[in-house]
Amino acid sequence: MTPEEVVAITAKHTYGTWRYQKNWTPLQIVDAEGCYFTDSSGKKYLDFSSQLMCVTLGHKNQAVIKAIEEQAKKLAYAAPGFATEVRAELSKLLLEVLPKGLEKFYFSTSGTEANEAAIKIARMYTGKYKIISRYNSYHGSTAASIAATGDPRRWAVEPSGKIDGVIFAPECNCYRCPLNHSYPDCEIACVNYIEHMIKNESNVAAIILEPVVGTNGILIPPKEYMPRLRKICDDNNVLLIADEVMSGWGRTGKWFAVDHWNVLPDILTTAKGITSAYVPLGLTATTMKIADYFNDHYFAHGHTYEAHPLTLAPAIAAINELRNKKLIDRAVEMGDHLNKKLNALKSKHPSIGDVRGIGLFYAVELVKNRITKEPFNTKEDKVNGKPLLVDKVSAEMMKRGVYVQSWVSHFVIAPPLIITKEEIDFAVEKLDECLSIADDALNT
Length: 444
Prior knowledge:
- By secondary structure, the protein is an alpha/beta fold.
- The protein has helices spanning 3-13, 50-53, 62-74, 85-97, 111-126, 143-147, 189-201, 225-235, 288-293, 309-324, 327-348, 379-383, 389-399, 421-434, 436-441, and strands spanning 29-33, 36-39, 44-47, 102-108, 130-134, 166-169, 204-209, 239-243, 267-270, 282-287, 352-357, 362-369, 374-375, 402-403, 405-407, 410-413.
- It has a seven-stranded mixed sheet, sandwiched between helices.
- The N and C termini lie far apart (44 Å).
C-alpha cells in the first residue's frame, strides 16, 4: 500500500482516540530506533515524549526484542491458571525492585486494567466501596479507572459509563493551588482536606493517586505530602493506591516515584515502562496482608491474557536493562541538564508560566499572563474541539523534527532515558524557536 492508502484506511476504518474523527490524518510511522522514529517520507523525529511517555529504553532495544523472540519460540501462551517459568522469574525480580512490602502480583495488559484490578481488590478486601481520587488525574478508560479520572476524559461517560462511589479531592498543585494557598504557609491543606473527606464520607475503601501526576501537568507534591497521606490512610483504615503507570521505572530518577518519600502504598499499579511499551503489560502489586485475605475469600477478578508469557519476558529484559545500563542514575543526570535548559527558556519567553519536573519527567506550562496565571486554553476547549495553542506549538515542532506531547495548556516532556545532552539541546532549541507562536499570542 502507498502511504496515502495507509493513512486513509486508518482514518476511515479505525478510531482515533480522545479526539473528533473529522479531518484526522495520522502520520504514518515506518521505523524507530533509539530516541528517533521515522515517517513514510523518510523524515526522522526526536521522540521527546517517548511516544505516550512509555518507551523508556528507546526504540529497538535488542535485549527486549530478543526476550520477545525467545519467549515466542518457547511458550507463546498459557492460561493464567497455569504456572510458567517466566511468571516466576519476573515475580522474583519484582520483589527486588518494587518498594519493599509489595509481594503479591496481578498481571494484566495495560495501566487501565491495573487500576481496574486495584479498585476491585480494595473493595473486596475492605468491604467498603467509596474511592477517593483527585481532580487533574488520569487513571484509565474502563469503568472503574475512568470513574477515578479527574480530567475531562471522564465527562463523556457520565453517568452510566462508570462505576458509582468515586469522589474527588483537590489535586496537589503548588503552581495553581485549587485552594488558593501558597506552600509552605498552606501546611499542605490539600492533603489535610482528604482526611476531612474520609471522616465525613464514611465507607471509604481507598484513595487512588498518581504520586507524580502525569498527563495533567507533572504535578510534584511537597516533601510532607505523601508521608502525611500515608498516616491519614493508616489512621482511618483506608488503603493507599499509588498509580505509577507513568511515573514508574526510573522516569523520576527512582525506580518508583513513591521511593522519593520512602512511602509504601498498600497497592501499586504500573505499566508503560515495565516493558518499555514493546508489549502491553500492566501490574497490580499488593502487600501480603491484602493477599492473605484472599486465602479464605474468593478473588473475583481475572481475564484471558492475565500473566501472558509474551508480556512477561520483555519485562524481565527491560528491568535488567535499566539496571545494567544504570539508566535510573542517568535520568537524574540528564534531568538536571534538561531542567537548566528549560528554565533558561522561561526567562526568555513570557508565555511560559511554569517549568516543573523530576528526573526526566517535565512540564512546560503556557499562560497568557504570568501574574494571573490565565491559561491560553481550558479543559472545555479540549472537549469542544477548539484549536489549542499548545497543539499549534507542537505541530510546528514536528515540522522541525521534534515530537512532544501536549495537553490543554502544557507540554509533557519525557524522553527515553537513553537520551543524550546533545539530543536534549536540539529538542529544547526547537522548542525555543516555536515558542514565538505563544509569545505572539500574548498580544492578540
